[in-house]
Design brief:
The structure is a single chain. It is built from three helices and seven strands, in the order βααββββββα. It has helices at residues 14-22, 27-30, 109-125, and strands spanning 3-10, 34-39, 49-54, 59-68, 72-77, 80-91, 94-102. A hairpin with a 2-residue loop joins strand 6 (80-91) and strand 7 (94-102). Helix 1 crosses helix 3 (109-125). It is globular, with a radius of gyration of 14 Å. The protein starts with a strand and ends with a helix. The model has no long low-confidence stretch (mean pLDDT 96).
C-alpha cells in the first residue's frame, strides 16, 4: 500500500514525543483537526475505540488498529484507515516524527505537516 508522508526532527527524546502522540489528552495540543477525544481509556492500544471532536464540531468514531509501543500507531476514523504515526529515536535527545496517510488522501499531507510543526513546538517547549 502506497502512502504519502511528512516528517520532522524534534529536539526531544523519542519517549517524550511518544507520550504526546499516544495519550489522548495531548491530541488537541498538536492535532490541527482535533478539539477533544472521548474514550474509555487514556491512550492508544490495539482495538481501543472512542470518538474525536473535529474542528467543525463533529464527533467521529475511531478505532486504534495497531500499536508498536514507543514507536507507532495507526487508526481508523469512521471505519476508514486514516493516519499512521511513527516516532524514531535519533540519539542525543532527538527524535523523528513521521505521519502517513494512504496515497488516495495525499492532499491531507498539508494537515499532517501542520500537526508535526505543532508537535515539535509542544515537545520542545517541555524541555
Amino acid at each position: 500500500m502506497r502512502h504519502a508522508k511528512a516528517s520532522v526532527e524534534i529536539e526531544a527524546p523519542a519517549d517524550e514525543v511518544w507520550h504526546l502522540i499516544a495519550k489522548f489528552e495531548y491530541w488537541p495540543t498538536w492535532g490541527p483537526t482535533v478539539r477533544a477525544v472521548e474514550s474509555e481509556t487514556k491512550e492508544v492500544d490495539p482495538g481501543v475505540t472512542g470518538r474525536v471532536k473535529t474542528i467543525g464540531g463533529l464527533w467521529l468514531p475511531f478505532q486504534i488498529i495497531d500499536v508498536e509501543p514507543g514507536h507507532s500507531w495507526n487508526w481508523r476514523v469512521l471505519g476508514v484507515p486514516m493516519t499512521g504515526h511513527r516516532i524514531a529515536n535519533l540519539g542525543d535527545g532527538r527524535s523523528m516524527a513521521e505521519f502517513t496517510v494512504h496515497i488516495v488522501l495525499a492532499p491531507y499531507v498539508l494537515v499532517l505537516r501542520r500537526g508535526l510543526r505543532r508537535l515539535k513546538l509542544v515537545a520542545e517547549a517541555q524541555r
